[in-house]
């Protein structure tokens, strides 16, 4: 065992490399059973980390927060310090797994780059001159500036951007009480076009019963790197018992590598593939006649719509041979209803993403897999109660969100970050001059960073609450240090994972909050109190939890005992006696609402633009060692993933005279940057790719400041036409040798 070369990781135990690598995707199968009250140790995973686990330690349940999956964990605490994070064997959603990022949570807790006290900007925005201030001063500033902006521009002059967190609801609650309906989240950079597509087909957004499926097509999803629990583990399990996996991806991802078939589809053409699936299934009558007739609406119109969408036609669009498309359709239908087109998750990719995902939903409908084993599952009953707020009415507020009607079928609660940004810059339909950001980092995760900076220039006041000096915090006027997930008490949260669970989790501090960090609940509560809105926060977290659990007697005790509470609710057949929440009350192959919104009721295929001569389409995606744009600075993960590089096919590289490892300049219509070239056959010749979360402008992130390319600087700001979801695969770039003449 060697000590680290990176002095920033000096506080960690030797052997962590091997331990992290081993931990990549292993399950805590040998984990000891946890009994009431005390948790015995060590677990088998801990054996790999014997140095840390030896001797007496305390064990505490918690829930991982290194990504949104919220896997159950047990924190081992020795002499007041967290020394190891292990999976909670009671936690079926993650099948007893804690991934590499999850285990690296320790390095987040003890990161020397943590924000330690409130900071007030001194120099120009983004210059990096800060003054340490007290929480009293920070709260005074918040009260004063929010009051001022509300007076001057109405309450909707404040924008709240809120990421995924068990305390996010308190920022929403505050925004509502304060009186702004301008709230955005990461979701309009993530999955709202997917949600729209499935809501408008089935009336709800499904879970995929991967575990019991016999045939899965993953198109534009990468479950063995972009981990979604339990789907990632269930796919492995299903394949071990004979299920077939077909992957369509312009990149040879880890998922593609594990699949039975990988097709490097031409980017943006998935709808052609899906319409051809429909063509074959309908023409060859491979569907369940009675089921489809009873449950769906618009089969005749769909039949007509896909009449010419033959496999040969789709072959010319997708680059996948026609006979293979026909064969895959037949195999998929033969395995139905225990077969599915995986709905995916991130659909912030194309300008017609909602319609692309509608086409996947329609194939699923023809497979008759809704609400049945191996198919798409409806939401189960968890039983956690909401704590409603009756927000005050402000007469002078505008009628609607600042981005209202900028796309035909937006989600009112989310809006669209990209459209909101446009509206803020334009100052139309009304001025928005204040920005409160909690746990989201649009400087890295929204396309077109220069435009985000322009939006920030338009703001009179900007506050960011984060655990580290993110690129977004770096641009703020006021920075608020937050405790990490291992240091705070969070409300209960409902979680679902297909057939694995409908459950409730909560968090209690594993160690006391470090530095001067303060949970957002306390900040919002104090702010509300000081702004005469105290009645909306007249509870403690414990009281809030009790309200949430009111309909689940005994759940609080089970949560204490097991770290998770399960509701044994129905998994299949939920729709046996209810109608679908669509206009027709059926599964809408043909959408009844779309024509009024000026949209095609059936997905109409338009070929994507080909990259102009000398350019490449840039796509984004995931790496198992990085969460979006935020974990790249983590010392343990940084060791395994020190920078990003640009994937390019060898033939393309040869044509351009570029070679592996060379520093290259990537340039789009909106920005540019440099990084190392990775020449690889794992990508199509017309496409390039790089990982997110590098090339930071924040000097507070020692490992990623100026390291690699910030893909957000290069991505153009395009949107899905239906929802306003960001469309991040619509950028063409040139690639030249860095420093050379271009
Ligand atoms: N390790 C890790 N796990 C994560 C996350 C993380 O950051 N790190 N994030 C979580 C979150 S928030 C989300 S939303 C999910 C995202 O998980 P996924 O929905 O699986 O999304 P991506 O990983 O972005 O994968 C999209 C894939 O589509 C490919 N692609 C690009 N264009 C096309 C196309 O036109 N057609 C097809 N068929 N494929 C195309 C890309 O190469 C990429 O591999 O992952 C979650 N899990
Ligand atoms: N280029 C590119 N853009 C993308 C994506 C991509 O793959 N590539 N993915 C898209 C997708 S699917 C999504 S979901 C979005 C996600 O977009 P974001 O919501 O911006 O996600 P993160 O990058 O994870 O940023 C989370 C922020 O929260 C901070 N944080 C972490 N823990 C805590 C905590 O306990 N408290 C507080 N207050 N802050 C904390 C982190 O430091 C970080 O600044 O990005 C989207 N944008
Ligand atoms: S998938 Fe990994 S990072 Fe995400 S919650 Fe689970 S253990 Fe944590
Ligand atoms: Mo996401």
Automatic annotation (TrEMBL):
Keyword Acetylation: no
UniProt KW keywords: 4Fe-4S, Iron, Iron-sulfur, Metal-binding, Molybdenum, Oxidoreductase, Signal
Listed GO MF terms: 4 iron, 4 sulfur cluster binding; metal ion binding; molybdopterin cofactor binding; oxidoreductase activity
InterPro entries with a match to the protein in the record: Asp_de-COase-like_dom_sf (IPR009010), MoPterin_dinucl-bd_dom (IPR006657), Mopterin_OxRdtase (IPR006656), Mopterin_OxRdtase_4Fe-4S_dom (IPR006963), Prok_Mopterin_Oxidored (IPR050612), TAT_signal (IPR006311)
Ranges where the 4Fe-4S Mo/W bis-MGD-type domain occurs: 57-113
SUPFAM superfamilies xrefs: ADC-like, Formate dehydrogenase/DMSO reductase, domains 1-3
Family membership noted in the UniProt record: Belongs to the prokaryotic molybdopterin-containing oxidoreductase family.
Xref: PANTHER family: TETRATHIONATE REDUCTASE SUBUNIT A, TRIMETHYLAMINE-N-OXIDE REDUCTASE
Name of this protein: Molybdopterin oxidoreductase
Biological source species: Alkalidesulfovibrio alkalitolerans DSM 16529
